[in-house]
């Protein structure tokens, strides 16, 4: 796409309409012209051509409605329906200027640059190109537009079961990924990198990317979004989707397969089972599946600020976990575990039981905290979930919650079933425990057992009516022992 122009523009260095021109190891002839006029002496000559048509030894063809060459300044101006062609590469514009002394080409009006062999196409209103030379190891091309638009393809070839980038892949053993980029400015650095500025939008497969600016490696391996960065519609092979926001976002592909998304700044990642927040959120993928989400908080906050503003936070249907950093592990879209490190806290978010709800908010949730909090999950298949449930897919259930280092926990359990035949809506058992380590085991969403190292704390039971104390005291004592 860019190489084409470099070859074309070299012929204008010393354009003399009646002579054969040699420049940079290529020879170009004026093959046809409706009219030719020249004025001045050698070195200051100005030449005018109508409908010029040039043919070069390397296959380059150049056409325009008219052209003017100023030998004194080395400037050639092509006017009206300007056309450059070399093999599968073409450039169209309304007008073009070439400055031979600077190695610079400017084109304006309906810019189109196309390379059919690479599947690339760029449009805009103004093009500026600086040739590769001793001072510039790579050619630089900038296209402005309202907006400018580019389509690029990246091909990969299957070779012995392995997929690797290749531009020589045959249709039977290759696959192609297409980028569509819109921005106010597109800047190409050789065939290596594309930079975009102003209201950037990129479409790649199921991904839609938005930002104020962008850097994209043209081999498709790395994409960087800067300022107000957003990713929408990252779809895994199992059908799970991920949306990401941040001040900046880095995206890494390997062999055309998504490997990593990292959001920097005020970050947010929303996936099928929940959402993750922090000052940096990183997602790792394997075989097109989301496997790990990690989040870190702002390390500059003090302890009081951390309590008021959680460092890193993950929310899902069954729990909330927060800490200086957190990590979630998944398999085939299912949540396996969550770990919070540093001022960590886990909150159970089971569906509230209206019989145990109170006007005191701290009595309406169960929680566990410590220097480290880890939560293990199991999934209930969708065919076992109650038909009355409004959730779809597999339901996430907590199996264990563990806190280590300055560990504390607060849990409630309804005692309705142990107060005789009558239900007391206000009946709750409350357990507050401190220790070096707290381990809580669940079964079907209910606490089955609690284990505490170096335990301190309190266990509160509702006051039972006199007619129920005798018959139920044995069961209550048993339940109390389960918490010890």
Report the sheet with the most strands, covering strand number, pairing sense and barrel closure.
Answer: 6 strands, antiparallel, barrel
Proportion of residues in β-strands:
over 45%
| Radius of gyration over C-alpha positions, nearest whole angstrom | 34 Å
Q: Calculate the terminal CA-CA distance, rounded to whole Å.
A: 73 Å
Uncertain segments: 1-26, 158-172, 382-393, 417-423, 468-484
* Helix fraction by DSSP (H/I, runs of at least 4): under 10%
Number of helices: 3
Mean pLDDT: 77
Strand order of the largest sheet: 20-21-24-25-23-22
Report the principal-axis shape.
rod-shaped
E-strand count: 30
The class by helix and strand makeup works out as: mainly beta
Overview in brief:
The protein is mainly beta. Helices cover 6% and strands 62% of the residues.
How would you characterize this protein structure?
With 484 residues, the protein is mainly beta. The chain has helices spanning 3-9, 303-308, 466-482; strands spanning 21-23, 26-32, 35-39, 46-50, 53-56, 61-63, 66-70, 75-86, 89-99, 104-115, 120-130, 140-159, 162-165, 174-189, 193-204, 207-217, 222-235, 241-254, 257-271, 274-286, 289-296, 312-316, 319-323, 325-331, 334-348, 366-380, 395-414, 428-443, 446-453, 456-460. Residues 1-26, 158-172, 382-393, 417-423 and 468-484 have low confidence and may be disordered.
